[in-house]
Amino acid sequence: MKRLAAFVFYAVGAIAIVYLALYAYSAFTGRQIQPGDPIHIFRGPDAPDYSSILPVIASGATHATRL
Q1: Residue 50: inside a domain
Q2: Could you count the other beta carbons within 10 Å of the beta carbon of residue 60?
Q3: Taking the C-alpha atoms of 33, 37, 39 and 40 in order, what is their torsion angle to the nearest 10 degrees?
């Protein structure tokens, strides 16, 4: 049981080191994001327009209680 626990401990440590190495690689070689850069979101031209459908939400409230 101690041998299994030691193996799990070292495996978790190795995974953590690999994660940190990948994070450092992406931080130093990745594209820098500058404030004001536009976010580009692309949709397919044949995608349905879900905003044209108005959903009916039954909340059960008959009047607004917040001021």
Answers
A1: no
A2: 5
A3: -110
Range of the domain at 25: 1-29
For the stretch 7-40, pLDDT in tens is 999 999 999 999 999 999 988 887 776 777 677 7
pTM equals: 0.45
How many independent structural domains does the chain possess?
1
Q: Taking the CA of residue 49 as centre, how many other CA atoms within 13 Å lie in the half-sphere pointing to its CB? A: 5
Residue whose token pair is 């607004």: 64
Specify whether the backbone of 36 is left (phi greater than 0), alpha (psi in -120 to 50) or beta.
left
| Residues 1, 8: Cα–Cα separation, whole Å | 11
DSSP assignment letter at 32 = P
